[in-house]
Request: fold
Amino acid sequence: MNEATLQASLADDSAWSGVAWALARDLKLALRSKAELGVQLLFYVIVVSLFPLGVGPEPGILRTLGPGVLWVAALLASLLALPRLFAADFADGTLEQIALAPYPLPALIAGKILAHWLATGAPLVALSPLLAMQFGLGGEETTILAVGLLLGTPTLSLLGAIGAALTLGVRTGGALLALLILPLYVPILIFGAGAVEALRAGLASGGELSILAAALLAAVVGAPLACAAAVRIALD
Amino acid sequence: MLVAQDLAAQRGDALLFQGLDFALRPGAALFVSGPNGSGKTTLLRIVAALTHALRGKLTWDGSEIEPFAPAMRAAVLFIGHAPALKEELSAEENLASLVGLHGASAEAPALADALATWSLARQRSLPARVLSQGQRRRIGLARLRLVSRPLWVLDEPLTALDTAGIDTLRATVGEHLGRGGMALIATHHAFEPTAGTSHSLRLQ
Reply:
């Protein structure tokens, strides 16, 4: 196959093939290193469970704290898993090959972020209704909380990926990443926890959830492009 | 065809080389040698479109090479120092993954064949973590036969390879040149694939 036909054959579906390649590979790698995923999930469970132990069994206080605690814990757990998104590929030369692949780089990165969310974000969402029981949240509150996390955690992965790409090759990358990314997480936290607050105040939480969905859409479009630019700078 | 005119490169504040001119025609290989730190890897990364030159002009089939240009990504196969292997994946999975990333299809018989060529038939289902340096290097080189690209850019491909491995690489490069391919290879030990096809470039 010569160069021209290679480019032509890649042009039609190259973006989706790129997403599929990165998704398949990163999910396979995640399944091979289950221990790392377990640590992150356990961290989430323990942080959430510390609060009822710390503030005491007063149901009123726990119900008030619940949504915020689950969101903060999800945020920290998501941060814990971020460094592994690009650092391993950067260290072993895979990222170089990814940047030189004929697929569009943002597509490959989007696939990596999707795999990262499926491996680290989705389990947090799935576990959250169970953890919400510790705080005595009602059925409807738990549903809104889980929907909020479902819309919000992918945004956390997408925003976090920008930070992970920007701190590639920096020696104190982990700490810098936290400082860089946590402020960006604030709006997601406010609207995520706010959705449950709105429900309690007798208002519809559709507004907060819509904002979370809008943030997700904006991040889906913008984050892979920003990551691709940051990765290219890191490789130069 | 790859043409460099008055190329200069810098790493940090140090000027690595300047005034570099060379041309690489179909069917030819260029061996780059020189002491450590003379800029061999940087030159290869510039040609592979991973970074840009400080000055000068580098063209591929008449158009200038920009970092990460799609035309270059479709034309170059770059194998650098880093093996780009995943410890958790087996030799065969690593090879399939890399070949897939290059946009080529990797059928199981072709993969098995490529691994056998590089004497890795028995190691195909072993995780990369238990393989030796030379065997890891062989997995990376095994994709040369599976991915069709006109220009090969190989950075120190002989590192950790034994004599048999060097012979296989020589044959593989010779075949590539015979089909009208080009190769830019940084190495301390020149190895002539076929007489009359290789040129050398020494960086100071």
